Amino acid sequence: MEENSQTETALDPPWLAFCKLCRLPNLFTAWADILAGFFVVSFYSSERLTGLDFPLELMCLLLASSLIYSAGMVLNDYYDREIDAEQRPDRPIPSGAISAGAAMAIGYGMLAAGCLFALLGGFVYVDSAAIAWRGGVVAVVLSASVVAYDAVLKRTALAPWIMGACRFFNILLGMSLAQALPQEGHWQVFGYDAGQLLFAGGIGLYIVGVTWFARTEAVASDQRMLIAGAILMAGGIGMLAALPVAQPSVVALAQLTPSGLWGILVLLSLVLARRAVIAIARPDPRNVQLTVKQAILSLIFYDAAITLAVCGTGWSVAIVALLLPMLGLRRWMYST
């Protein structure tokens, strides 16, 4: 009995507790957003550059996104610590592996560091970014969205939308250090053209749908909520399919025809659609959770599809390769 008690109360080593707190496997979806945004805008500059032409700027943006995303996961558990103490006592904070005070300090410290790295990226080589300070501003807005979700809005009807906003701003963060801006006379907001905003908005709306679909994944879900989530996911994919119609000045289909992009999006969506239909027909926790996991995995493929359309095969393969560490880590570390 004494040995069993010791086993049950054994704490994770600090490094493992920290990785679990940050939901390390899901971090690679944030990287996919940054890589897709960065490759798309840097490749379509007048010199057709790639991310490797600006490695320090890219590294700064990846660090910024990693810190802000991980901070969001840490603060999520910090603000949920009382609920987790009842329902998930083995998690890092309720188990005592990481104290609540330390988690709060780590979370907000990472948000501040992420914003600083994003701002630094624009000033590594100031001539390579058209708006050097834009990354820092987007990172601040992204961080504010993270705090708003974790601390205030998580259990409101706005929660899925603020979660989608976090993905929207993460894509814009990847695009923030573009060397080329829309030409005069082209519609733009803060230097982002219609195509860029449509790409970021499509991913954002897709995540709204995923979050809506997953809201009651631990219990028998309401079929109406599942249908609404599926419709929102489809709407986000539809926005990605509308990219050829947007006629953007910076994001343009250089490597695929519109029909090629549409075909890829349809193929990528078939497996997810099958999962969603099964979950809607039989809304038990297992079916819903399998659909949510498939939707999160598909996010990397959608980022890769747009990268393929603009930049070609090599850069899209680099994004798809992120699935390898993600799936490997999921085998021994939870990601929800």
UniProtKB/TrEMBL annotation:
Listed InterPro entries: Prenyltransferase_related, UbiA_prenyltransferase, UbiA_sf
Origin superkingdom: Bacteria
Localization annotation: Membrane
Transmembrane regions listed in the UniProt entry: 24-44, 56-75, 96-125, 131-149, 161-182, 194-214, 226-247, 259-278, 299-324
Main location class: membrane
Pfam families the UniProt entry points to: UbiA
CDD domains: PT_UbiA_1 (cd13964)
Any one GO CC term of the record: membrane
Membrane topology annotation: Multi-pass membrane protein
GO molecular function per UniProt: transferase activity, transferring alkyl or aryl (other than methyl) groups
Keyword list, A-Z: Cell membrane, Membrane, Transmembrane, Transmembrane helix
Name the record gives this protein: Prenyltransferase
Organism of derivation: Bremerella cremea
